[in-house]
Design a protein that fits this description.
Layout lengths: L1 E10 L6 H10 L6 E4 L4 E5 L2 H13 L6 E10 L6 H12 L10
Antiparallel strand pairs: 1-3, 1-4, 2-3
Helix pairs in contact: 1-2
């Protein structure tokens, strides 16, 4: 089984949230998941759905604020073994190029 998740943990505050996001990401290290953080969210990958949800819960709990919103979107591939990079590779194959722009930010 391969389970993917999109995770976004956001404290509701007017203050800078960088340290809070870092705490959420650091909490993932205690679990058997791989992850990649982007500017908008973190993609997680695990072999076990329970491990994945436990990691998401730990990331949520790691943020020490009175109001925290967490978004978790799960893709549970129950009959296929694949890596998150395989999904990106498939899109890039269809595009015939990398799935990112070549413009300078």
């Amino acid at each position: 089984m391969t389970v993917f998740a999109l995770l976004r943990v956001s404290p509701i505050t007017d203050d800078d949230i960088t340290d809070d996001v870092a705490a959420a990401i650091d909490a993932l290290e205690d679990f058997d998941v791989t992850y990649e953080t982007t500017p908008m969210a973190t993609t997680l990958e695990a072999d076990d759905v329970h491990e994945l949800f436990a990691a998401c819960a730990a990331a949520h709990e790691a943020v020490d604020h009175g109001h925290v919103q967490t978004l978790v979107q799960v893709d549970d591939k129950r009959d296929v073994e694949m890596a998150a990079s395989d999904k990106v590779d498939a899109v890039e194959g269809a595009l015939g190029r990398e799935a990112s722009s070549d413009r300078d930010a």
